[in-house]
Specification:
Layout: E1 2-6, H1 10-22, E2 26-29, H2 36-43, E3 47-51, H3 59-67, E4 74-78, H4 83-91, E5 96-99, H5 104-119, E6 128-131, E7 134-137, E8 142-145, E9 148-151, H6 154-166, H7 173-181, H8 190-204, E10 212-215, E11 219-222
Parallel strand pairs: 1-2, 1-3, 3-4, 4-5
Antiparallel strand pairs: 6-7, 7-8, 8-9, 10-11
Helix pairs in contact: 1-5, 6-7
Length: 227
């Protein structure tokens, strides 16, 4: 599988490349940080590792640019360890976050886990699920509502698949975590909450601000008030 590394610290970038290639991943380093999208579109990687602090534009900017074209899994890497930076990374469309100094073994474990759950995901035989007049197309990773289409990242698709499966019944936090991250020991407790928050923001843009309901200590469910 192909991995694109967007990291301007040459020592870190080469260390990541060397470690990932030990596990037979084909890695490409971005050299011109004004041309990240050109490299991304040419390479069509299966996963992106991207720093936050970069020349020209930061990682948040490039993540939003990638997200406008692709739902490829993205892992942020950064020396910014403040919780707000991590939350921002997730809200901008990142799937995971790695703090510096980089732990190479942890990096490989996160890469393997994210690639596994992204590309081993089996699309249900019935690729379209409906909740009242809101439709989830699992094959195209999209929500369709009143002639509007909302593209989902892979993590968002997994969350919505779980919610659509249970409909008006609550899905527990543990059930969603298991469906999305397969009990990955490296997933932070805030990851689900941040992804739900990001989903709500996206759903609001097509008039579905109240589609997902939260009940403390119970979980999440879909509500007809949202559609």
């Amino acid at each position: 599988m192909k991995i694109l590394i967007v990291e301007d610290d040459v020592v870190i970038a080469k260390a990541l490349k060397k470690e990932l290639e030990k596990h037979e991943y084909k890695t490409t380093l971005v050299e011109d940080f004004a041309q990240v999208m050109e490299v991304f579109q040419s390479l069509k990687p299966h996963l992106v590792l991207i720093d936050i602090n970069l020349p020209y534009h930061n990682g948040y900017y490039w993540c939003s640019q990638i997200r406008s074209h692709s739902s490829v899994p993205i892992i942020f890497i950064s020396s910014l360890t403040d919780k707000m930076d991590q939350l921002m990374a997730m809200q901008m469309g990142g799937d995971d976050y790695l703090p510096k100094p980089i732990d190479l073994q942890l990096t490989v474990a996160k890469v393997q886990a994210l690639l596994r759950r992204t590309y081993d995901f089996v699309t249900p035989q019935n690729s379209e699920r409906a909740f009242y007049n809101v439709h989830l197309d699992t094959e195209k990773a999209a929500i369709n509502y009143k002639n509007q289409t909302l593209s989902l990242t892979f993590t968002e698709l997994q969350i919505m698949t779980c919610l659509f499966k249970n409909g008006e019944e609550f899905s527990s936090r543990e059930e969603i975590l298991d469906a999305c991250w397969q009990n990955d020991q490296f997933i932070d407790d805030n990851t689900l909450a941040v992804n739900i928050s990001r989903l709500r923001k996206k759903l609001k843009s097509i008039g579905l601000a109240e589609l997902i309901e939260t009940k403390k200590k119970v979980g999440y469910r879909l509500t007809n008030e949202g559609g």
